[in-house]
Give the backbone structure.
Amino acid sequence: MAEKKKSPVLLITAFEPFDGASTNSSLIMLEELAKQDWDGKVVFFGPIPVSFADAWPIIEHALNRYPDIQGVICMGQAEGATRISLERMAVNRIHAGIPDNDGAKPRGPVIDGAPQVLKALFPWHELEESPHWECTYNAGAYVCNAVMFSAIHWAREEEKFAGFIHLPLMESQKGDKGLGEKSFHMKDDVALKSLTRIIDFALESLEPDYGLKPKPAPQQKFNPGPPIP
Ligand code: PCA
């Protein structure tokens, strides 16, 4: 009998390089993560353009291709970070300090009329502590924050889950002239092992038993009553 092909429940994305760099740590990690066996539960998608106009529509289009998808985790690079940052909130504000890869430098709300702040829907605060990751509360006001805000907004409407992870530079990026030599560089294998644990945790949190979503009420037993004479 042909086995039903598994459909993924979690989409993970990463960005292309930006601001004169030729690498992006999130894309390096996406490629490594995609080589691992996730039992068909995770789909990896990238590179996402560093574009205020195109990034979220491209991710949303990808999400719509998978009928069983429950959540999305977007990853981006944060030069200067010394740990993996599990972002816990996004602000409804765009304030680009540098142009995006389309040359745009917009300012204004991410989504008109939406709340000022949206909280990540993965319960990162319930993940065990590690020297390699931490919960953080400022995803900036550039493309990553805008994508995070849009992803959470989508997830709330669709009753799904969304989160954002910023990654430090990786050791394998040393020599990229578009990045600061003096910035902290994390060992690639440390980042990969940490992200593997973080994604496993995200998958656990999507299980109905974890309790993020109310369980469907048990079916009422239908009592047909005595037969009609
Ligand atoms: N980092 C940028 C955008 C793309 C990326 O990887 C940011 O933090 O907004």
The pocket of pyroglutamic acid is lined by residues 15, 18, 24, 26, 50, 76-78, 140, 142-144 (CB under 6 Å). The chain has a mean pLDDT of 95. The helical segments are 25-34, 55-63, 143-158, 188-206.
